[in-house]
Amino acid sequence: MNYLLAIDQGTSSTRAMIYSVSGELVASSQYPLTQYYPQTGWVEHDPEEIWQKTITAMRDVVAKIPTDQIVCCGVTNQRETTVIWDKRTGKCLAPAIVWQDRRTAEYCHSLAIDESMIQEKTGLIPDPYFSATKLKWLLENHSEAKELADKGDLAFGTIDSFLIWRLTTEHLHLTDVTNASRTMLFNIKKEQWDFDLLDYFKIPESVLPKVCASDSCFGVIDKQWLGTELPITGVAGDQQAALIGQGCFKTGMVKATFGTGAFLLLNTGSKPVLSQHKLLTTIAYKIQGKTVYGLEGSIYHAGTTVRWLRDSMKLITSSDETEALASSLKGNEGVYLVSAFTGLGAPHWLSSPGASMVGLSLTTNRAHFARAALEGVCYQTREVCFCMREDSQLDLSLLRVDGGMVVNRWFLQFLADQCQLEIQKPKDIESTAKGAAILAALGYGIFNSLDELHAIWDVEQAFKPQRSLDQVEQDYRGWGQALQRIKE
């Protein structure tokens, strides 16, 4: 029996999982991560905590099966999150700046004049979300980092690069095309670091990792970490890994992951489609020499909004309660939550933090808060789906979903109604880790083609639109009015 190891380093937690080559989950270990908020709009992680919990999770699952039966490892990660370290010692020089961080918002506003140039090269629009301005900020605000960069001794990486460097015997400094395409420094058409952009952001080439195809060999995990050597044969950013895990290999297929944030990714095929609605054009994957592009809409807050109800507002004791609370109401009674805690993502791209509750009355209770939190994610998903249709001119008929929020059936039904799509929930909702395992298997040569992977994906439940269109549109109009208030 052969097994696949997957590392899933996310925003809220770090996980390691063992899969069989047929895609069945065999073992799992997960550890929560601490998020730090040193200032309004700032979000940080401790890279050493990420490293330690990754190693611990890996050891947990590897201990459950014979190590000689694990053939390879795949890595997937929170994207855009930026780490810098000393190439000589491996010491991290600063906290990791998380993708949600907005500290460079003012600088990004100043880049508006060059937005079309940046989008043409990278598929992205100037925003603090991406790694380029985070790295620029670190170089400008950490004197040691600047000194090391001048000497060629500084390494920058997204989390995949950081883990590969730590795990491999040779301390390889590598990334894959999907993660590179999220830095705002990578030319997605030429598939290389863009020297014009490096000069534009004053970033030396020496700090950057080498970019590889998603199914490349990214080195071998040193024996000291797991007691055995193990090749890393697949790497992809978390949303691209989820697209792979959901089996969305055909043009026009789209998936949505509802985790910390919510992320929709549409397979647009072999040519990049530049968005007219401020969606992101990204590399979906590069497998067996073929590059496939995608259109992505990113919603900053999904699971974090439910966590806010639980941890900060103390309105619920567990996320599971939101399903019963939301379904206890016949309607939303005009209560809306616009979860712009660190701004809004696609297609609005509001950098200023400022969430808003609208429509409160003396009869408003925690059920209204729970329902408004879930509804808000659905309305934003609907907006992204509309933009995807307009930009791609593709007919979207179904949406495959995954992530922690999709255990909530009320949420999925409301989503189907708002998006007017069939929503397909797979048996394994952790598509991100599964995608990393599948990618590793492809890189290792266990599968010869993508066609062999269709049998790995199974639908558990489908949700089709049920509510009247009049009620659906009435609810959506209320959302639009609530949204307009924070834009004024």
TrEMBL record:
Substrates-to-products reaction catalysed: glycerol + ATP = sn-glycerol 3-phosphate + ADP + H(+)
Keyword hit for Cell membrane: no
Pathway: Polyol metabolism; glycerol degradation via glycerol kinase pathway; sn-glycerol 3-phosphate from glycerol: step 1/1
UniProt xrefs under InterPro entries: ATPase_NBD, Carb_kinase_FGGY, Carb_kinase_FGGY_CS, FGGY_C, FGGY_N, Glycerol_kin
UniProt-listed SUPFAM superfamilies: Actin-like ATPase domain
Domain of life per record: Bacteria
Domain Carbohydrate kinase FGGY C-terminal, chain residue ranges per copy: 255-442
Record CDD domains: FGGY_EcGK_like (cd07786)
GO molecular function, a single term: glycerol kinase activity
An annotated GO BP: glycerol-3-phosphate metabolic process
Alphabetical UniProt keywords: ATP-binding, Glycerol metabolism, Kinase, Nucleotide-binding, Transferase
Annotated EC: 2.7.1.30
A single Gene Ontology CC term: cytosol
Keyword Transcription: no
Domain Carbohydrate kinase FGGY N-terminal: 3-245
Recorded family membership: Belongs to the FGGY kinase family.
The protein, known as: glycerol kinase
Species per Swiss-Prot/TrEMBL record: Fluoribacter gormanii
